[in-house]
Amino acid sequence: MSFPIPEFHFRNLIEVVIIAFVIYRLLLLIKDTSAINILQGVGVILVSLWICQLFNLDTLYWIFDKTIVMLLVAIPIVFQPELRKALGHLGRGEMLAQLISMKYQDYEYVIDCIIKTAVQLSQKKIGAIVVLEKETKLEEYAKTGTLLDALLTERLLYTIFYPYTPLHDGAVIIRERRIYAAGCYLPLSDNIEIDKDLGTRHRAAIGITERCDAIALVISEETGSISIASDGKIRYNLKEESLKKFLNSLYKPKIRRKTTFWQLFKANR
After folding, report:
1. How far is Cα 128 from Cα 221, in angstroms, rounded to an integer?
2. Is there a single domain that holds both residue 86 and residue 187?
């Protein structure tokens, strides 16, 4: 008995590549998170379901079958942080980057202003957390604080975090060249593998970057050290040069230089 071999088209190859890429990106997204352990548990249940069917273990098959149904309802709830992060990544791309109203020089101004203020706060061991908004808008977190919508300056940013001022105990959200809100409450990280010695500011910085594409700068009140969190990871104790390097790589958009035909003609002369 011969089985017909299905005809393979180029569009099938495209579909396979797209599906493989999506699965690969999803695996990268849940790597080193609690979600990977949950997926392993789901895999064990599916294998157990197949074994029960193979050996006609009806009672166990019924139990595992009902468990799978419950998991279909529970998975979106359990994976809420990962799904939210995945949708956020999906919504960001090169096309959206072209719609950013902020000019390249504005990024330099923002980075320079934040670095100078961070160094001053660090020297005096004044705790602070500054969140740089990127593609994902942080309206829900801005509403937990006080909306300012004021031009970003070193003096204003320093004054906000000065001890005993009304807005010093909370995060500042920077939107383009403006201090959009101050005294904001941020979600703490759910990652159980984070160093237990980290304070609330560092956990909040990691937490906000787990949920969106924002960048969070933290200054420790105890040591004065400066740290940067992005994509759920944090870099500790950065000096001024390293701080500038990381902010440039994470926040400033890349300039793509287009070579025109006339430039090529002149270069080959």
Report:
1. 8
2. no
